[in-house]
Structure formats: C-alpha cells, structure tokens
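Two quick folds needed for the group meeting slides. Do the first one here.
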Amino acid sequence: MKAAVRVAGIGVVHAPGGRVGESADTSRRLAAILATLARTGSAVRLIHPIEEVAVLAAHEALTSGGLSVPAGGEEVGIALGVEEGIDGLKAEYYRGILKDGPLGASPMLFPLTTANTVAARISILFDLRGESFTLCGGSLSGAQAIGLATVAVREGRSRAVLTGGVTTVARDLLDALARTGRPDEGEVGSGACLFLLEPSPSSGGDGGTGELLGYAEGFGQQAVRDAVQACLEDAGFRAEQVTSTRVASADDPRALLEALRRIAAGATVVRSSGGHRFAASFPLAMAEAFQAADVTPGPVLVVGTDCLSGASAALVRGRAPR
C-alpha cells in the first residue's frame, strides 16, 4: 500500500465542434484569463483549439486547487497526455506542404507539430517550473500522465503536479479510424481534463476534491486483470471494497466488461460519457467519479483499454459535499 494523493483541483473543458469561441461563456473566460496573464507579462496568442482548452482547464484546475496564477517557483510540475490532437495538427501541417510545397509550411502550425508544445505553453503561461512530461500513448496517454504525476508527488519530486489529458478530435481522425475498421462514435471537437495533485495531508483535514488511492497499468492478454489487481494492491484495497467501476475507454467494450465483472463482481459498472475524447477519456472518467461522490461515496475503480493491448486502472475516492 502506497500513500494516497490529494486531488486539490479539477479543470474540465468541452468544446463541441472544435473551437472554444463557439461558446460565448468559454470565449469570455478564455479572454479574461489571457488578459490577466498579459498584465503579468505572459502575453500570448493561441492559434489552435487544443491550446485553448488546455489553458482553460489548466487555469480552472490550478485556481480551484488554491494556487494563484501565475504560480511561480519550481514546486509545480506538469504531466500532460496528448496524442490524436497532435496527430491531427501534423496532418493539417503536411497537407499544406503537399498542396503548396515549402510555401505551404505554416510557421504558425509548425511548433504545434511537436508533442510537448502544449505542455510547454501551459508551463510558460502559468509559470510552472517543476518537472515537465508529455505522454503520447494513444487513448491512454492521459491515464499514463496521471500515473507519472502520482509517482512524482509520492516521491516528493514536486509539491504539486498539474496532470491529465488534452485532445482535439478532427474529422480526418474519425474518417481514418473508420477506414481502418475502428469506427468511433465520437464527434469533432476539443476537450481537456486536468487535475492538480498534491500529497494527502497526514493529519486528515481538507481532502480537496477527493483522493487518488492507487494507479497501475497492464499489457497483454490479461491487461485488465493485471492493471486492476496491481492498482488495488497499490491502494491497499480488496476488490470487494470497490463500490462501482467506470469504463473510461475500451477498444473491446464487451471483453472489458466481462473482465471487470470477474474482478469486481459486486461493483456497479458505468460507461463514462467521455469515452470518445481519446487522450482525455480516462481523466474525464475520473472527474465523473469525483463529481458523483455524493451518490457513490466509496472507492471507484476507473479502467480504460486501448488498441495496443494496454490497460490503465485507477482507484479514486470522491469527497462528498457537506
């Protein structure tokens, strides 16, 4: 059993159809954040939806976790999962080159073809000077980022870590999935779900939004079983103590559900509504578990799989409202 990690703040942003600007509320919020940052010397122009949702979610997670922004210092790190959002940007960039040659190489898009650009953008804007990681592990990259962040907090390498997943789902991606025999029910849009993780107070006290009790990964034919068992061991819990299970994403939903029922037979299984947000799917399922703490006060198992025979599992416990 290892120490639980406090989830101090959460930032969740959905932008159906792509751009944040399509919603007047999120557009105003983003403009206000950028104006505030500009007054502190962090003026920047955001050119892509993946940047917009990342900045919005990061600001919400940091401020709801009690941090002022810009944060400053070297105590706050970042671990960010991206994947298909960056792939879409690369496709858009190279389409211009194929069409117009060197003149079609957009200097605006070029920096965003590098996977760690979004994490770097957040770090610079909010002055996060701790360790920085970018994960590109497909649909589980957000989960893997949370796993890295958990280790960093537990080992004391960072006082706090901003972590989760950010994505932009383009039509090209959905069309490509359909052509390869993996049609997805999702729609074009952008999304982000970020958490601010901190060490849990040793004396109890304010538990923030909730706790991340354990995390683990598995690979191969028994990936789900291995990930769940290792996660429960990491948290010091037994399978029968799990009150419900949330499916974050699943390459083979039927096989995943069957595996979960064998492992935690008494738990209610719920399919997350964020299942088509790819890199953000797992963090979104965790956020739903925290938000439903008044309905499900006990530990909730969040599980996701990908098309590479990988699985991630997290055991979380929300803090029911008083």
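Then this one, please, same format:
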Amino acid sequence: MPENDTRLTAGVHVRFTGRMVFGLLVIALGVIFTLDSLGIVEAGPILRWWPVVPLAFGLARLVGAGGRRDVGSGLFLTVVFGWILLHNLHFVRYDVWDFWPVIFIVAGAAILTGGFRRRREAVGGQNGAPQIDAFAFMSGTDRKVVAPDFRGGYVTAIMGGHQIDLRGAQTSAGPATLELFVLWGGIDIRVPEDWKVSNEAQVIMGGVEDSSRIPPGEPRGHLILKGFVMMGGVDVKN
C-alpha cells in the first residue's frame, strides 16, 4: 500500500489532504448555518468547536496518519488550533492572537542565527528518494531536484518560502503530485520545458500563477499541484 494512502475498502484509497480538510470544514459550516437559519439548532455553541477539523489534520500530519508524516506543519497546526479550541472552551484565558508579538522574537532570532538565509539542497538522484518533503517557517529553502522517477511530495511554507527547481527531474512513474500548504508564504517552482502543469489547489486570498509554456508536442512529464494556499502565492515557470 502506498505511503500516502489510507485503504478504506478493497481497491479504494483516500488521501487525507489539506483540500479535503478545507472542503469538510466548508460543508460543516454550511450545514450548521442552514440548521441555524431554520431554527433547528443554535450555531453559536457549535461553532466553538470549529478548530477540531484543522486540529485533526495537524495531528494526522504530525503522526503520519493518512499520508506522509510532516512534523513541522503538523506541530504548528496542532499547537495553534489546539490553543484556539481550548480558548473557545474557556480552558485557557489568553487567545492565541494575544501572542502575535512572538513573531518579532522569532524573526529576530532567525536574523541573528542566519535563519533567513536560503539553504541550498540537491534532492533525489540515482540513489535519492523520489519525493521531497520541504518545510519553511519564517525562512527559505532552495532545492534542486534531480530524481529520475520524481513522484512529488509535500511542501509547506508558513511566513516563508521555497524555490524548487525540477528541471533536472523526470517523471517515469506517471504524474508527480505536490501537496502544498501555504500560509502567508510563497513557492517558486521551475519545471522542464516538456512538462505540463495542472493546478488543483484551493486558494483563499492568494494566487497560483502558471507561467510555464505549453509543450509543443506530447508532454514528457506532468506536475499536479494540490493542497491549500491562503494569503500566499505559488509561481510556476520554465
């Protein structure tokens, strides 16, 4: 069974992705507001529990349930939305937004330690993994992928950014899928001239711009972008 899938029944697989979480949250809110409008339930007490959905997603990413394990984004989502839930239930006095000045503390520490300097990495190769797992929080990475059977991976940018160069990669095992989670961050992706790009990411107050040229003949590679982009941007070019 593939690492990124969870088997439900024979021959059926479901991936626990950011798009799925966002879709479930929107559906749940629609149902609650509809029932409230009809006078069946009161939305206020129920809406206190809304952080449960992104909290569950964070815990899943943290332990690797239903997908590849991502400690960085999983820990961030678990702490933030867990705190919001505890505040909504009056278990903690302070709101998570009361701690926003901590951003300056983290930024200052990153500047002093050189955390904002981009790290250059070569990912993949003849003996390398066919997937990438990139995380950036108030920092940046510069990755060059040279895997001969690139299949995609997970890229998280929270108030940070990534530059991912896929021009040395190949997709011999079929389309490559990048699961994106972008929050106040940005991702620049360079693809080979003979690749096509499909965007299936969910975007809120952000953007995904595909500036890559359409291959003149049959594409020799296919990159699929999925995931969630909020108040951030993704730029794809050759």
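Slide caption for protein two: The helical segments are 18-37, 43-47, 52-63, 71-88, 102-113.
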